[in-house]
Design a protein that fits this description.
The chain is of the alpha/beta class and 287 residues long. The protein is 28% helix and 26% strand. The protein folds into 2 domains: 198 residues, Formyl transferase, N-terminal domain (Rossmann fold, 3-Layer(aba) Sandwich); 73 residues, Methionyl-tRNA Fmet Formyltransferase, Chain A, domain 2, CATH 3.10.25.10. The termini are far apart. 34% of the residues are buried.
């Protein structure tokens, strides 16, 4: 038997990247720490390919919370997880699909923090999808997982006002993750107590996002200005934006490192031409 947490809700948390840490930080602020954290295995990363620990693992270990890192969510893992006697599971950016046998382990099921106002923007890239669509009404959904992707009933939704829209992917990710963490913390007690009823989604209104690919960052600098800037915001960090230009019969890849949107124009400020250091865009054009 594992130690009972002060909040009296025994929940397991499934998550991996920094987005999941932001959710956990809000849960912690509400006095609701998980009894166990499930995250991805350590993976080689960086130029030296050194083993890198998921951000969620680091967060949990700093708080002496047990961490499980299964390669597969099979029978052995389910047996280990069942020893924690969790009432409910909470998921945020875990990266794997939880099968029906795993979902059945928690009496109150599995709750997911999804960074969009479902049924819109289901799928792999809801943050990028909302930015690319120039969506003015953004928010987060606390939903119950079922066997289909982002399909389950809604416990609560929170709309978020974003100043200075459009914003970059990381800013929107953190804003929605923290909002989701607070919403989950306020909702979980009544859900576990059985006093909250989930509402089915209107599946007719569902829209979907796909996984971002490296090639999505390719733009025409002279293309539609607003569309280019939305891509710049959505693909912040990775894959970033780039274009090709021909110089002396050679095709050169140019990465855009800083851009802005002013007077309905997409303004490229700094770039990294292939094989060179970062420089002002106007310097590159004049060279």
């Amino acid at each position: 038997m594992h130690t009972i947490m002060k909040n009296n809700i025994r929940y397991a948390f499934f998550g991996t990247p920094m987005v999941a840490v932001w959710v956990l930080e809000e849960m912690e602020q509400a006095g609701m720490l998980p009894v166990v954290v499930i995250t991805a295995p350590d993976r080689p990363a960086g130029r030296g390919m050194q083993l890198s620990e998921p951000e969620v693992k680091v967060w949990a270990q700093e708080r002496n919370i047990p961490v499980l890192q299964p390669e597969k969510l099979g029978k052995e893992f389910r047996a280990e997880l069942s020893t924690y006697e969790c009432e409910v599971f909470l998921v945020a950016a875990y990266g794997k699909i939880l099968g029906e046998k795993l979902l059945a382990l928690a009496p109150r099921g599995c709750i997911n923090v999804h960074p969009s106002l479902l049924p819109k923007y289901r799928g792999a890239a809801p943050i990028e999808g909302q930015i690319l669509a120039d969506e003015k009404e953004v928010g987060v959904s606390i939903m119950q997982l079922d066997s289909e992707m982002d399909h389950g009933p809604i416990l609560i939704q929170e709309r978020v006002d974003v100043s200075g829209w459009p914003v970059g992917r990381m800013e929107l990710s953190e804003l929605l993750a923290r909002t989701g963490g607070r919403a989950a913390a306020s909702t979980l007690p009544s859900w576990v107590a059985g006093t909250l009823t989930a509402t089915p989604q209107n599946h007719v209104l569902a829209t979907y996002t796909r996984k971002t690919e490296k090639e999505d960052g390719l733009i025409d600098p002279n293309g539609p200005a607003r569309e280019n800037y939305l891509k710049y915001c959505a693909y912040e960090g990775w894959p970033g934006l780039y274009f090709f230009i021909e110089r002396n019969g050679i095709k050169i890849r140019v990465k855009i490192t800083k851009a802005s949107f002013a007077d309905d124009a997409f303004v490229i400020e700094t770039v990294i031409p292939e094989g060179k250091r970062e420089m002002p865009y106007q310097t590159f054009i004049a060279s």
